[in-house]
Amino acid sequence: MIRRVRMAASALLLLGTLAGCATSTLRITPAEPGRVSSSGARVTHVLDGMNTGIYLFYWIPLWSGNPHYPNQHDYDLLRHRVTDKEIYRMFDDTAKRMGKEHVEDISIRTGSSGIWTLWIFWKRSVRGTGYLVVKKTPSPKSRGNKR
């Protein structure tokens, strides 16, 4: 009896592993010339980031991609990293690394699916897009004339 339970648990774990991978990805593409954000700042690059994870019964994190090291197949075990906050952090780290001011117009989408393992293992994902911008520097005339 115990052997059957172990075999069933192993099969479910293998199915969960093969049905979807947990990873963190980031794609940076140059923006079209003349593109501006909603605040009027010049957009230099478009960011598209995603983080996925595998959860037991939707709530218990098993493993997820590490948003601090996207595109490097770095994973976190037993940590909940599939959140909006992690996408914002990924974008902020990218902006600092590239020497840009900040990221604007971020939109976040989340999704989950558990049907492929009869709702035992769930694949959850969060995906965000945003614009790397360069802030407008005030012209000398608009700064005022201090004497």
Can you walk me through this structure?
It contains three helices and six strands. It has 147 residues and is of the alpha+beta class. Strands 1, 2, 3, 4, 5 and 6 form a six-stranded antiparallel sheet that branches. The model has no long low-confidence stretch (mean pLDDT 84).
Integer-rounded radius of gyration? 21 Å
SS-based class: alpha+beta
Order of helices and strands: HEEEEHEEH
- What best-fitting shape do the alpha-carbon axes yield? elongated
Uncertain residue segments: none
Number of helices: 3
Estimate the strand proportion: 35-45%
Distance between the terminal alpha carbons, to the nearest Å?
A: 89 Å
Average pLDDT number: 84
Portion of residues in helices?
Answer: 25-40%
Largest sheet: 6 strands, antiparallel
How many beta strands in the DSSP annotation?
A: 6
Give the key terms.
single chain, 147 residues, alpha+beta, six-stranded antiparallel β-sheet, 6 strands, elongated
Could you outline the blueprint of secondary structure elements for this entry?
Blueprint lengths: L1 H18 L4 E7 L11 E15 L3 E6 L9 E3 L6 H15 L3 E12 L7 E14 L5 H4 L4
Summarize the structure.
The chain is an alpha+beta fold and 147 residues long. 25% of the residues lie in helices and 39% in strands. The mean pLDDT is 84.
